[in-house]
């Protein structure tokens, strides 16, 4: 069976700078889910046109909007780039420019031109789950996101906080701490 070999990481978006090229439907979808997960994300968008809802989101999340066509100069200082224009040749240009500069790049409607995929994301306080279908079915990623948003209790974050407080109070060496933390969380994975 085929398997997903992608490696998920949790980016500190507050100190990384992301560029979105394009200002249409796809750009708006990517910005919506990016800011939903990571309201502190540092984002710049460049496009000759932005949708109204995109401009509103930009205002809310302090996103810089540059009204211009894409130029390689806009890559300066950016760590990751998402290309969403309706011009395949522009998206490929963005991809090639990023590759030449070793920047991570995602051409949203073109999986072979993605160094990474955006995933379905569930956030419950301190807990975050990211979901990918290996680019095979974004709709399934969305449905799984909705499912986990529903079934994971909001207070999972309180539990994590409590365990964080508790782990600070445990005396003993590393091994004893590990044993204790595993013992008190055993119930979470016991079959009923
Ligand atoms: C590869 C990837 C690259 C990337 O964008 O990073 C990609 C690619 C493509 N998306 C397409 C379409 C749709 N995308 C969505 C929705 C989402 N797409 C997202 C991620 C990803 N989309 C990455 C893979 C993630 C993974 O590994 O599973 C989500 C999870 C996250 C996000 O957008 O931030 C977000 C749900 C967020 C949420 O709700 O939680 C819907 C559903 C809907 O809108 O209802 C549709 C319409 C239905 C359909 O077509 O399936 C097309 C077809 C274009 C065409 O037809 O030409 C391509 C291109 C292709 O597959 O070739
Ligand atoms: N809307 C969707 O859900 C889907 C879109 N796609 C594909 O994804 C691509 C983008 O789709 P949409 O966002 O709907 O298109 P759109 O037409 O809404 O947006 C395209 C954006 O790219 C900008 N743009 C054009 N040339 C540019 C340049 N040189 N530099 C910077 N920005 C530039 C435009 O000003 C516009 O803001 C298209 O190729 C489309 O076929 C594929 C599947 C679904």
Provide a brief overview of the structure.
This protein is an alpha/beta fold and 192 residues long. The chain is built from 6 helices and 7 strands. It folds into 3 domains: 17-118, 3-Layer(aba) Sandwich (Rossmann fold); 119-152; 157-189.
Overview of this protein structure:
The structure is a single chain. The protein has 192 residues and is α/β, with parallel strands linked by helices. It folds into 3 domains: 17-118, Rossmann fold (3-Layer(aba) Sandwich); 119-152; 157-189. It contains 6 helices and 7 strands; from the N terminus they run E-H-E-H-E-E-H-E-E-E-H-H-H. It has helices at residues 25-37, 52-60, 88-100, 138-151, 156-169, 174-185, and strands at 17-21, 42-47, 64-67, 80-83, 104-107, 120-124, 127-131. The strands form 2 sheets. The protein has a 5-stranded parallel β-sheet with strand order 3-2-1-4-5, with helices on both faces. Helix 2 links the parallel strand 2 (42-47) and strand 3 (64-67). The longest helix has 14 residues, at 138-151. It is elongated, with a radius of gyration of 20 Å. The two termini are 30 Å apart. The model has no long low-confidence stretch (mean pLDDT 95). Bound molecules: ligand SHN and 1,4-dihydronicotinamide adenine dinucleotide. Ligand SHN is lined by residues 29-30, 33, 106, 108-109, 111, 114, 117-120, 132-135, 137-139, 141-142, 145. Keywords: NAD, Oxidoreductase, Porphyrin biosynthesis.
């Amino acid at each position: 069976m085929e398997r997903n070999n992608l490696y998920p990481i949790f980016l500190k978006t507050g100190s990384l700078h992301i560029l979105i090229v394009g200002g249409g439907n796809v750009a708006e979808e990517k910005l919506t889910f990016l800011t939903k997960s990571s309201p502190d994300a540092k984002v710049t968008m460049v496009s000759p046109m932005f949708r109204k809802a995109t401009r509103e989101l930009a205002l809310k999340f302090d996103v810089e909007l540059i009204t211009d066509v894409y130029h390689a100069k806009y890559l300066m200082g950016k760590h990751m780039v998402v290309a969403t224009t309706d011009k395949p040749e522009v998206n490929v240009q963005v991809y090639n420019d990023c590759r030449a500069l070793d920047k991570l790049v995602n051409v949203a409607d073109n999986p072979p031109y993605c160094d990474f995929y955006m995933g379905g994301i569930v956030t419950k306080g301190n807990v975050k789950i990211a979901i990918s279908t290996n680019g095979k079915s974004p709709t399934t990623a969305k449905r799984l996101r909705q499912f986990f948003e529903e079934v994971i209790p909001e207070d999972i974050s309180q539990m994590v906080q409590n365990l964080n407080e508790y782990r600070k109070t445990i005396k003993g060496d590393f091994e004893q701490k590990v044993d204790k933390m595993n013992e008190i969380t055993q119930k979470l994975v016991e079959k009923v």
